[in-house]
């Protein structure tokens, strides 16, 4: 989709397609662990790190815990309760999650796409929502340790990630307004069950269950395949939103470069939903022949229509819903045939009603031969296709994907209303995902406290200034498989970035 990225740093903020590679200068205020590493000119991982296996880059033994020990006030708070983590609104809950569990290094490597800080991270905007709902925008950090310290200090309910700008966002007020603009950002998608409220019968509003989650699973399957197959993207990270939906982050080099217009074009290619719906109420109104992408998706979604839509959701069970089904066909004879029968027997299932309509339109032997019959069959097939797509095709938040500067909640944040962690999703194993079983921040802290190596010791004098050490992290909690899956994703991203650098160097030598 674009030319290989250049190695030179940005010198002019008006550059149309800046390189992903970091500038040659290293920040002067980096902590010692960062300052001791080689600069980005020594390779994607630096000479001092290039021989280390990728999985070792995540080894916590390489880290220095800069968060500091728990303070006396925090310790006294924990010591006075049998269960100090029961109240999600207690600020100590999030404080300890950020200190003891959140995978800061993995998040940094994912955003930075390199082990040495570059402007994919240092110029990145972080927007922070405080406990009092104050919203702090345009925060930026020289390295992940500074980010970790600031989040612990501010103790927000959540934080969001934006684009990488032409300069560190925290310095924007010192720059001419025209010179500060977003330049690189993942292509993102947002799917929320709120957009399915008109078709899900099991739950409504903020509620969710394993049945209606299947709508999200279908959407992920379609989007994931389309983005990989039709656009060639490889590095897609799917993340549970913490309550009713899922987010997708596409970190491929080409995706990072996309302009707003290019992002809008991708959204237009994928989206087939009409905002106001057709005159019969369907959000899909397509005619044959279908676009190959839609036809391919329809083949997969048709297999799920019966078990997910008709059986699990019973979408035509209530009177207003089956009347909607009859109205779609705009056929008074059809309505007359079934309306009275369905009114008199409310136990007729959605599956039975759907099959009855299909059988009604099944052509007789006489109708199979005339030419005009083929046109009728095509029209009927279009209605059937539109019904299936209306109930199963992805319903994405269009505005989220269209703009380079859109903010999206960070992976591994905690949903402030549910306590659920925004964990990565494996699109290959969506059948095993249950939103009710996603780790809760309160349970994670309880798990950590029960682990022998992470139990906080009781001080001889609670008022003493001696502070107990910070307990260990996500390794000893049920969050571990999700972080390890995230690590695997980042490994692949780092590996490809390193290979791209080698290819550019080889091409340069050959030239």
Automatic annotation (TrEMBL):
GO terms for molecular function: DNA-directed RNA polymerase activity; metal ion binding. GO terms for cellular component: alpha DNA polymerase:primase complex. Keywords: DNA replication, DNA-directed RNA polymerase, Metal-binding, Nucleotidyltransferase, Primosome, Transcription, Transferase, Zinc. Residues 1-14 have a biased composition (Acidic residues). InterPro entries: DNA_primase_S (IPR002755), DNA_primase_ssu_euk/arc (IPR014052). It holds the Pfam family DNA_primase_S. It is an enzyme of class 2 (transferase). Residues 1-48 are annotated as: Disordered. SUPFAM superfamilies: Prim-pol domain (SSF56747). Its EC number is 2.7.7.-. One of its GO terms (biological process) is DNA replication, synthesis of primer. It comes from the Eukaryota. Belongs to the eukaryotic-type primase small subunit family. PANTHER family: DNA PRIMASE SMALL SUBUNIT. This is DNA primase. It comes from Puccinia graminis f. sp. tritici.
